Amino acid sequence: MVIDTLLEEALGGSAQALARLISMVEDGGPDGTAALRAMHPRAGRAYLIGVTGPPGAGKSTLVDAWTASLRRQGRTVGIVAVDPSSPFTGGALLGDRVRMQDHATDAGVFIRSMATRGHLGGLAPATADVAKILDAIGYDIIFIETVGTGQAEVDIVGAGDTVVIVLVPGLGDAVQTMKAGLMEIGDAFVVNKADHDDPDRTVAEITMMLQLNQDRGGWRPPVVKTVATSAQGTDEALAAIEAHRAYLTANDLLERRRKERRRAEIVRVVERRARDRALDLVRDSGRLDDLAERVHRGEMDPYAAADEILTPRMMLDHVGIAVRNLGDAARFYGAVFGLSMAERYELPDEGVRVAFLRSGGVDLELLEPLGEGGPLAKFLATHGPGLHHIAFRVPDIRRAMSAAAAAGCMLIEPAPRRGARGSPIAFLHPSAAGGVLVELVQG
Ligand SMILES: Nc1nc2c(ncn2[C@@H]2O[C@H](COP(=O)(O)OP(=O)(O)O)[C@@H](O)[C@H]2O)c(=O)[nH]1
Ligand SMILES: [Mg+2]
């Protein structure tokens, strides 16, 4: 399979294979999921550092300086940068590439720029997944750079083991940052562009805000001044990150943090699958056009239209089996499928005793005649035990009944009645339904 080959090549050090793998993951299709699945057991060794702050604060320049230092220590580095892609300029993607050129030929560094998907504050959702792939491939340190403007970004950098907030001198940004909720998640603060304005004042302001922010679990986020363009203070900032890592490790907090992140990961997978399922449901564009037309004409609202799409037009609800002895049959299905008897009741008017066995999917309704002469007793006398009826759940029982009547099917009763389980039910005569008695249940 293509994925296996790609994985093998990427693990063997092919940057090209790795880039293709990441594209698959970004696309979010089944191949990407397969790749992530295969890589999952290998991930968890890298240290993830989230870097965020206002645009232009110098995040990329800082990451670049840190990468150079880490490479000198012999550590490999993966970088995932999420940039707002301006429709006018093509965004900062090119800028990042140009700046990171020094590392372009270094096999120990892998840089991936991801575009935000259009809308303001929108983020390439696969960031954490891409980081995971880089982790699994074996990069020691992974930087996730995002523009800190809102909750979505908070979620993404929150995926880091250490979260670094980058600010520049001047109160405005710091206030904005606090509003965006970034203050609470910062494990270390960098005041970059210390060659400008009055950096010490900004350091003091941040320190004060941090003091107002109680309960950091014993950790005091350091605040470091840097000039990223000339690598001044950048090693001190890196040391602050390392100190946080050491703190987490020494206090058994790293594993706890990572375990908490698994919840977010599961939610992400559920979200992705739910979205895939949703796309599947609207794939029938003829049906979608039809619903759009009806909404447009004012015959229904968009919510009812969505309900029509989300509710299957027909779903097997239960299968009714005529038996001579309820207990024996129930024991059999219990022994084989582990079904338990959910309800048991007698309907003297209809001459049946009923047992419902719930399966979690399609239920079984076992029917035993109550005395002689009822319809079920007659059924048993002519057919013997066996399939008695199948019941379909439909969104609108009256609609289904009139469709059946229009198709020439005889209705056993003209209007729905309330079934023993509370929902409206109706029966269609077997003659038009392929020889099977069909029960309709409104779902
Ligand atoms: N004067 C000065 N300029 C810097 C500093 N750090 C970065 N820059 C410049 O600020 C601009 C934005 O930097 P960049 O790293 O792309 O910011 P990002 O948007 O936060 O990633 C670039 O032109 C950098 O060269 C600094 O410490 N001092
Ligand atoms: Mg940048």
UniProtKB/TrEMBL annotation:
Q: What keywords are assigned to this protein?
A: Chaperone, GTP-binding, Hydrolase, Metal-binding, Nucleotide-binding
Residue ranges of domain VOC in the record: 315-443
GO molecular function terms listed in the Swiss-Prot or TrEMBL record: GTP binding; GTPase activity; lactoylglutathione lyase activity; metal ion binding
* Secretion signal, residue range per the UniProt entry: none
List the Pfam families hit by this protein, alphabetically.
Answer: Glyoxalase_4, MeaB
Q: Known InterPro entries for this protein?
A: Glyas_Bleomycin-R_OHBP_Dase, Glyoxalase_1_CS, GTPase/Isobutyryl-CoA_mutase, GTPase_ArgK, MeMalonyl-CoA_epimerase, P-loop_NTPase, VOC_core
SUPFAM superfamilies assigned to the protein according to its UniProt record, in alphabetical order: Glyoxalase/Bleomycin resistance protein/Dihydroxybiphenyl dioxygenase (SSF54593), P-loop containing nucleoside triphosphate hydrolases (SSF52540)
Family under the similarity heading: Belongs to the SIMIBI class G3E GTPase family. ArgK/MeaB subfamily. Belongs to the methylmalonyl-CoA epimerase family.
Name of the molecule in the record:
Methylmalonyl Co-A mutase-associated GTPase MeaB
Q: Which organism is it from?
A: Candidatus Segetimicrobium genomatis
At the highest ranks, the source species' classification is: Bacteria, Bacillati, Candidatus Sysuimicrobiota, Candidatus Sysuimicrobiia, Candidatus Sysuimicrobiales
Q: Which gene holds the coding sequence for this protein?
A: meaB
